[in-house]
């Protein structure tokens, strides 16, 4: 009898311990235990299962400071958009495919892919931007091709015809304006950061936000020729080995300033290349190369980059 009672007790203790463990490790059973975070609760961009079902951890909507992260901490919010729609818009190559989301009358943000192509990481990043009240469009420069490993990405990237790519960007901006968006910004990451600078030079954009990218000379782009009327907000990590600050970033930025380009440069201490991928689950998977030993870049700094982005967008294309 005593043995049976001890056994029952042991089983109960084990089950409870297991539930608690499961909750802590996977967020499993949280509806049972009621520990998920509600709308408006502070959360971590890196924790995928902190927020209650149907909510995502993202930046608050009206983050009014000038990049002061104390007013711009991520919180659980209901996602209004669950996916992007594949579209085609007219260009010199006939049509260019792209992925669009958000309301047509909203100010728009053209989101430029990394060298991987239009994968889930860039789509999720675009959705985070759309959540801030924007229409988004990702032009698909590779026309459906997506790299899953590094060598493939290098191949696709070196095959990219920048003349055609720049036309894809110019026509994306024209399409957005023609179909309801009065203001259009361009943001891009890595290869797309370079393309965002090309867009600032050649497309009629109201603002440009290049992240850790610079167009090579052969692309036909020269960021020093960006019109003074196009404000540029650039973001680089000091541990970016692809675009070292002293040898690549500063010489370009100094020469842009000397040419009167309106550029604000933000450097992030210790952050690696492609750090903005850390804001989405697919991006984190990409940074870790699919393995689980991903070292999370400093979340305070990644959050700061996000809040500077939303502040800049609101300042230049919301009104
Ligand atoms: C979103 O769209 C992509 C293709 O554009 C598709 O692969 C994915 O399954 C969709 N996700 C959801 C949640 O509908
Ligand atoms: C790149 O694209 C442009 C415009 O579409 C075209 O004229 C040119 O021939 C292309 N270059 C190469 C090397 O394919
Ligand atoms: C690119 O062009 C600029 C301006 O003409 C020049 O200063 C720079 O050295 C060039 N870079 C390369 C890698 O050729
Ligand atoms: C950045 O690079 C420096 C020098 O290579 C290294 O000591 C430091 O640990 C790196 N920082 C991070 C956050 O990885
Ligand atoms: C992250 O960056 C902030 C701001 O620079 C710094 O105060 C903090 O110590 C960093 N955190 C870690 C874990 O390095």
Automatic annotation (TrEMBL):
Keywords of this entry: Signal
Pfam families: DLH
Coiled coil spans: none
Signal peptide positions on this chain: 1-22
UniProt superkingdom: Eukaryota
Domain Dienelactone hydrolase: 106-281
Gene3D superfamilies: alpha/beta hydrolase
UniProt protein name: Dienelactone hydrolase domain-containing protein
Annotated InterPro entries: AB_hydrolase_fold, Dienelactn_hydro, Dienelactone_hydrolase-like
